[in-house]
Amino acid sequence: MLALVFLAAVAAAAVQNESLPRPPAPRREQFRVIYEWNAIDFEWKSPEDRKTYLNTSRYIPQNVLISGINFYQDDLFLTMPRMLDGVPATLATIPVQPVDTAPKLRPFPSWDQNAVGDCNALQFVQNIEIDKNGIMWILDNGRVGTLTQNPDAKCPPSLVLIDLKTGKNEMERIPFPTDVVNPNTTYLNDLVIDNRDGDYAYITDNSAVDPGIIVFRRSDKKSWKVRDTQSMSSAAEATFFRINGTTVNLPVNIDGIALGPQYRNEDGKVDRKLYYCPLSSFHLYGLNVSVLQNETLAQKGDGALRPHVVDLGTKASQTDGMKMDASGVLFYGLIGNNTIAEWNTTVDFHIGQRTIARDPNYIQWVDRFSFDSKGNVYVVINRLYNFVKNQVSLNEVNYRILKSHTGSKSYVFGEDLSEPSVAPQSAAAVPALASSLALLALAHLLA
C-alpha cells in the first residue's frame, strides 16, 4: 500500500513538472513610419465638391489634425477633432495595409454623417474605442471650434455606438444628461471600455472648469461623474512644454486613460485598475473600477474619491494618450523627451518604466495608440504644439503614424476572469499523462 501511495505521488509530480514547450518571445521591432502627411486630404465625392469646400472655408487643410486612432479588421480609424473651422469630417478611415504613404481619408460612416450642425451626425470626435464585440464607442463633444474665440455647442455631448459587425454602420446616439456633462464646458477626451457586468465606459472630461471621469453603464444607459481635484487637475509645474525649440503653455486637466487586466481582490471578486493622468502633470494615478462603479461617490462630491486614488509616481515628462495591452503593459508617450515608453504594471512604477523609442525628428508629440490583431502597435504623432500655436506649415510633415511589432494585443481582449476558464489539454501533456497512468498501473501490481 505504501508503494501505491508513493508511486501515485511520483505520478502526480510527473504530470505537474512535465516541462511544456514555451512559446517564443514576441519579436520586437523598432518603430517605423508607415504613413505621413503634410496636410490631411479626403476622398471627395467629386473634384467640384473639394473645390466648393475650399472656396467656402469648410475645408482648411492646415486646420485638420489627426488625434485618435483605432483598429478593426482591414481599417484604421482616425479622428479629426473640430478644434478649428474647416474640418470637413471628424471621423474617417484608411487601410491597415499601406498602399500610399499619404492616403486620402474616407469619412466614416459617410460624408452626410459628418455634417456640421446636424445633430444626427458626428460633430466633434476626439477619440473612439472598439470593444471585443466589434462595437465602436464614439465620444462626440457636440461643441465645435474649441480653439476659437467663440466655441459653438451645436449638439448635445453624446456617446455614439456603431455595431461594426453588421456592416450597416447605423449610429445609436446617447446624449449625456446636462447634470452630468455641461455642453458648454465639457471636453470629452478619451475613453476605455470594460465589457463586464453590462458594459462600462470610463471617459476623461478635461473640462477647464469641471474635470473628472464620466462613468457610463450601457445596460441602462446611465452615467455619472466622479471628481478628484488633486489628481485630475493640471499642475502648475507641468503646464510648460518645450519640443525641439518650440514652447507652449497648456494647462490641461485629466487626459490619458488606460484600463488594466482583470484580477481577483482579497474577497475573490473580479476588479480592474484604471490608470489616468492630466496632460499637464508628471504623475500617473490609479484606482479600482469597483470604486468608479459606486454611483453614490458621484453624489458625495469631490472629496469622496480621494481615499481611493493612488499616486503611482512620476514620469520623466508629460503624457497625452496611453494604451494598455492585454497582458498589463502600458504604452505611453513622454512629450518633452520625444519618447515612447512602456511600463509592465506588475513591476513598481518607480523602477519599471522603460524607453522603447526616442527620436526628436519623428516623435514630436505622441498622441494616441492602437493595437491590431497581429501583434502590432500603432502610434499617432501630430505635433500638437504647432497646431495650438497656429504654426502648421504645409511644407513639412505634420502627422505621422508609426508602427512596431510588439506581440501585443489590446486590453479589450484580455482574460475574462468572470467566466470559468477550463485549461485545454495540450499535446505536450499527453506523454506526461501516459507516464502517470503507467506508474499507477505498476503501483497496483506491486501493492
TrEMBL record:
Keyword Cytoplasm set for record: no
Record-linked Pfam families: MRJP
Domain of life: Eukaryota
Species this protein is from: Chrysodeixis includens (Soybean looper)
Protein's recorded name: Yellow-x
Major place of residence: secreted
Record keywords: Secreted, Signal
A GO CC term assigned to this protein in UniProt: extracellular region
Coiled-coil residues: none
Stated family: Belongs to the major royal jelly protein family.
Signal peptide (from-to): 1-17
Subcellular location per the Swiss-Prot or TrEMBL entry: Secreted
Lineage, uppermost ranks: Eukaryota, Metazoa, Ecdysozoa, Arthropoda, Hexapoda
